[in-house]
Specification:
The complex is a heterotrimer.
Chain A (H helix, E strand, L loop, with lengths): L1 H36 L12 H9 L1 H28 L6 H24 L2
Helix pairs in contact in A: 1-3, 3-4
Chain B lengths: L3 E10 L9 E10 L4 H12 L18 E4 L2 E4 L11 E5 L6 E3 L2 E2 L2 H9 L21 H8 L9 H5 L1 H5 L6 H11 L7 H9 L12 H5 L6 H21 L7
Parallel strand pairs in B: 1-5
Antiparallel strand pairs in B: 1-2, 3-4, 3-5, 6-7
Helix pairs in contact in B: 2-6, 6-7, 6-9, 7-9
Chain C lengths: L34 H30 L1 H10 L3 H24 L16 H23 L6
Helix pairs in contact in C: 1-2, 1-3
Classes of the chains: A mainly alpha, B alpha+beta, C mainly alpha.
């Protein structure tokens, strides 16, 4: 398991790095409009009325953007929580913690693929 | 008549033959205005308590011997001015290292990590003497020069939270020095070092604290080296997936 | 006195001739001095993890139909969610600024024959992309483009 983790480090690091870069860039706009703007009425509700939202999302680029918004933050989050665990004396449990966290990120990413395909 | 200012030095003491665990002892030291912390420690040893043990040598921040925690920050005691510090000054051995005695830490662990990264020019075939010297342009020299300024003072190891928690992590200075050779135009060992950087003690353990670069007295910026090494290791890994490595020693 | 670090931190492969005292953590870790920003940086991982699942939830609702989608949007008006999303926004900005500061120096001096642009240029490019993409994304989502 530990050897597997070492072998996968470059992949995880790339996903984590993109999670920060692309994830951060995309999340800014998403949070501003979808999480705050529309629910609080600052952005008119019909901007994200079902018809329009679905049309934007089911566009191939839309699907890709949504997949990035799901998967990349998950990998960033998983890797950082693993770091946090190690920072607080978790070297002994690291293999287990990494397995669980990356497993969650992988599962979430897979569910994300199904979700964007199911639009 | 120089300015004298009394300061309290709270110094970690530990004698492995006589004591269970480190303790502190407080010394009142009449500090001159231009003193560094090292001057005060030498005063303590010379005039107050001859049993104090501490490492030092050049007194000018090039040998890397005198690294210690001063008021919680890893510092070169020959460089840190007493006048910049409050009236009570805590001096402790470097964090993250096993403590041999008083302010002296065990450095063998670092030397082993350093050896693992092969910090020397690796050539597939040594150039014959008749062929002359390696030629390197100033621009090529600039690429790695910053990372060659490391004086092995270990302040970066004392500051790094990953070093504190992951015993196998190669650590800032070792990775920076290995990377220094990998990007040296005379070197042909980058592939070898990338394997080492992805193995046990992996560079990917670095979690971007940047503390190493904050405390480095020679502006080596080991954080830059470690993160460049990650990038190079990934490129190496990715090309290794696509292109076969056959023929490499 | 400081907390103990990992008992084998910086330990040599063979013990020395005398007994050593165990290594100590850097005293200011985790929440004093510069370590505080670092620990917070790591902790934003939880926010990102929750956001990832939040987007997943939204996309699944969008796939389920109009009623599910409207319910998700309406649910986010709840003060608890508003507070969380404000925290998420702050986290995203904090992470972006910290990471962008590190990004230029993490570029190798050369990849083959190509050299990266100077640090300040990379910095400027990163912020230009961040702001540019956000403006376009907000415009699209808020109905300014592709009505």
């Amino acid at each position: 398991m530990k050897q597997l983790l070492l072998k996968l480090e470059p992949v995880v690091w790339l996903l984590f790095g993109q999670g920060i870069l692309i994830g951060t860039i995309l999340l800014t706009g998403w949070i501003l409009v979808v999480n705050l703007g529309v629910p609080l009425g600052i952005v008119p509700a019909d901007a994200l009325a079902y018809g329009r939202a679905h049309a934007l999302a089911s566009n191939p680029i839309g699907r890709l953007v949504l997949l990035a918004l799901i998967a990349l933050p998950l990998w960033k989050g998983a890797h950082h929580l693993r770091s946090l665990s190690i920072d607080f004396g978790g070297a002994g449990r690291d293999t287990a913690v990494a397995g669980v966290l990356y497993g969650i990120a992988a599962l979430g990413s897979l569910l994300g693929v199904f979700a964007v395909l199911g639009l | 008549m120089p300015d004298i200012h009394m300061k309290k030095f709270v110094v970690t003491r530990f004698d492995p033959d006589r004591e269970e665990a480190p303790r502190t002892e407080t010394y009142d030291v009449p500090c001159q205005s231009d003193w560094k912390v090292l001057d005060a420690l030498n005063f303590i040893k010379d005039e107050i308590d001859g049993t104090l043990s501490h490492r030092w040598s050049c007194r000018m921040a090039v040998c890397g011997s005198c690294g210690m925690q001063v008021n919680g920050e890893p510092s070169l005691t020959c460089k840190q001015a007493v006048s910049e510090l409050p009236d009570t000054i805590e001096v402790a051995p470097l964090a993250n290292f096993p403590i041999v005695r008083d302010l002296v830490v065990e450095l063998e662990g670092f030397l082993e990590k350093l050896q693992r990264v092969k910090p020397w020019i690796i050539r597939a075939k040594e150039k014959a003497v008749e062929e002359g010297t390696h030629r390197q342009s100033p621009a090529e020299h600039e690429e790695f020069k910053q990372f060659s300024m490391c004086i092995n003072c270990m302040l970066c190891y004392a500051a790094c939270p990953v070093v504190a928690n992951e015993p196998e992590f190669l650590g800032p200075a070792a990775i920076a020095l290995g990377h220094r050779y990998s990007i040296d135009s005379r070197d042909e060992g980058a592939a070898e070092r990338n394997e080492i950087f992805r193995g046990e003690g992996t560079v990917f353990s670095c979690s971007y604290a940047n503390e190493c670069s904050e405390v480095c007295p020679k502006h080596v910026d080991p954080a830059a080296a470690v993160n460049q090494a990650k990038f190079n290791a990934v490129i190496d890994w990715a090309t290794g997936l696509v292109l076969p490595r056959g023929g490499r020693e | 006195m400081a907390r103990a670090a990992h008992p084998e931190a910086m330990a040599p492969s063979k013990p020395g001739r005398t007994r050593t005292a165990p290594p100590q953590m850097p005293p200011k870790f985790p929440m004093q001095g510069r370590y505080r920003a670092y620990t917070i940086f790591d902790a934003t991982g939880l926010v990102y993890l929750l956001m990832g699942f939040g987007v997943l939830h939204a996309v699944r609702a969008l796939g389920d139909g109009a009623a599910a989608w409207q319910a998700v949007l309406a649910g986010w008006a709840n003060p608890v969610y508003v507070a969380f999303h404000l925290l998420a926004l702050a986290s995203v900005l904090f992470v972006g600024v910290r990471f962008f500061r590190l990004f230029p120096k993490a570029q190798p001096p050369r990849i083959g024959p190509a050299r990266p642009p100077p640090g300040p240029v990379i910095h400027g490019m990163l912020y230009a992309v961040w702001i540019g993409v956000s403006v376009v994304f907000v415009a699209i989502l808020a109905g300014g483009i592709f009505r």
